[in-house]
Amino acid sequence: MSEMNGKAIATDTRVLEPITAKELESSTAKQSRKPATRQNKTININLDLDAGSSRAKFVIDGWSGSYPSIFKEVSGDLPSGISGCFSIGNKNYAVGRVTNSLNGEVVEAFKDNKIKFLHIWLIGALANHPDLLADIVDDRKYKGKPARLKVTLRLLSLSSSKRNDIAKILQGTKTFSFEGTVFEMEITNDNYLYPEGYGCALEAMKLIPQGIPEFHVLDLGGGTLTFSSYQVGKKPKAIEQTPASGNGMKAIIESLSIALARVDRGGIQYKKENLESALRNSKLLESGKHSVKYRHGTETLEIGDTVTHALSEWVSEMPIVERLLTKVSQALLNGQPVYATGGGMAISIVADWIVRYCCADITNPQFYIVENPQEINLTGLSNLA
Ligand SMILES: Nc1ncnc2c1ncn2[C@@H]1O[C@H](COP(=O)(O)OP(=O)(O)OP(=O)(O)O)[C@@H](O)[C@H]1O
Ligand SMILES: [Mg+2]
Predict the structure, then answer these.
(1) Residue 107 predicted with pLDDT over 80
(2) What are the residues whose beta carbons fall under 8 Å from the beta carbon of 380, sequence distance 6 or more?
(3) Does ligand 1 lie within 6 Å of residue 241's CB atom?
(4) Which of 374, 378, 379 to mutate to test the pocket of ligand 1 (most atoms within 8 A of CB)?
(5) Considering the domain 197-385 in this protein, what is its CATH number?
């Protein structure tokens, strides 16, 4: 037996010895003299999070916001008074738009980093709220002690199969600091995982005619196109989710820049960022066509027709996209409703094209684009409360 074990036995034996009244008195006196360990009060918050590959969307106690899903591990000190900055251990991070003005290595959620850096997207959401952390810092009683947060989380994720990975990442992130104050964070609930697009499914449930047992959700996000089927019940229950990863809006914009490059316009370079904002501002003309205007220097180019070419290539060149859209059409043909959501569906030229493609030759198709498709996946969770 090792020396350590021997010592352990000796200590155990002492514990079994009867304690005299005098010993008891002196030990209680010692205890009452010991100062109580003072801690700051815990602050409870409700956080809904959809850390998408294009934008991280969040609702904190009813306040909703979003930031581009990009972060930098910043080399050097963090600026203070700027949104989205915090530290974990000795590493400094900045998330969202602020990364444009800081040096460091870029990490994008789009590149298979949605789950791997879930803790960064989560703390990034807290740090992107204009007042939340600053108010907690100001209001805590013991300035030298950490601020304490209890988070009730609802997390949207397609990767429910990665449940354990998600739990491990979240359990491992207990402490971070914000503008010099240490925060201790605890996630209070275990049942935080919801299927991606669940908010839209909850919203859809309000619109479904009586007697329909099943409905579907088509989610066109920044990175992924997903087709999900739900069973109607007190709450919608996901039956099946088919994602086409890497085939969301970013793929459409990729096809668009290739299609545009085929048209020889001298030295014009089409920036993806500008193409995205041109698409977001697409307008329906009286002719039924959509106008998409791209600004280059002093010139304004009309690229609406090229967008429709790019969309048909997106389908014809990606068999999985064609398969998912065929699933939509088959469901419509069977008389089942399909609800379209995701940021891509907020772009009128894209949404109209998809509606036309899926509904071709189907009489009375039940295909609906939900209101606020760019945020309903998350904000629709409010129907659960
Ligand atoms: N108001 C808007 N704000 C931001 N993006 C918008 C808006 N309207 C349309 N979009 C488009 O929506 C896309 C992002 O959609 P969404 O936020 O649903 O994706 P995501 O959830 O981040 O990605 P994924 O679901 O693939 O992980 C962007 O490519 C953008 O072009
Ligand atoms: Mg999404």
Answers:
(1) yes
(2) 198, 199, 200, 201, 202, 203
(3) no
(4) 374
(5) 3.30.420.40
Q: Give 124 Cα–ligand 2 centroid separation in angstroms.
A: 17
- Closest ligand (CA of 114): 1
Confidence (pLDDT) at 114: 87
Q: What angle do CA 118, 122, 125 make, to 5 degrees?
A: 140
In this predicted structure, the answer to whether residue 70 has a pLDDT above a threshold of 90 is yes
Tell me, using a 6 A CB cutoff, whether residue 344 lines ligand 1: yes
Give the length of the chain. Answer: 385
- Residues 115 and 169 sit within 8 Å (Cβ to Cβ): yes
Query: Where, residue-wise, is CATH 3.30.420.40 in the chain?
Result: 42-194, 197-385
Q: What is the mean pLDDT of residues 192-216?
A: 94
Which residue, by CA, sits nearest to atom 12 of ligand 1?
A: 343
Position with higher pLDDT, 151 vs 26: 151
pLDDT tens-digit series, residues 237-263: 999 999 999 999 999 999 999 998 887
Q: How far apart are CA 316 and CA 312, in angstroms?
A: 6
Say whether domain 42-194 belongs to CATH 3.40.50.10470. Answer: no
On the question of pLDDT at 160 being above 80, the answer is no
CA torsion 304-306-310-313 (nearest 10°) is 130
The residue type of 150 is K
Q: Could you tell me the pLDDT band of residue 173, with boundaries at 50, 70 and 90?
A: confident
H helices of 263-360, in order, are 272-280, 304-317, 319-333, 348-359
Is 220:210 a contact under the CB 8 Å cutoff? no
For residue 39, which phi and psi values (nearest 5 degrees)?
-130, 155
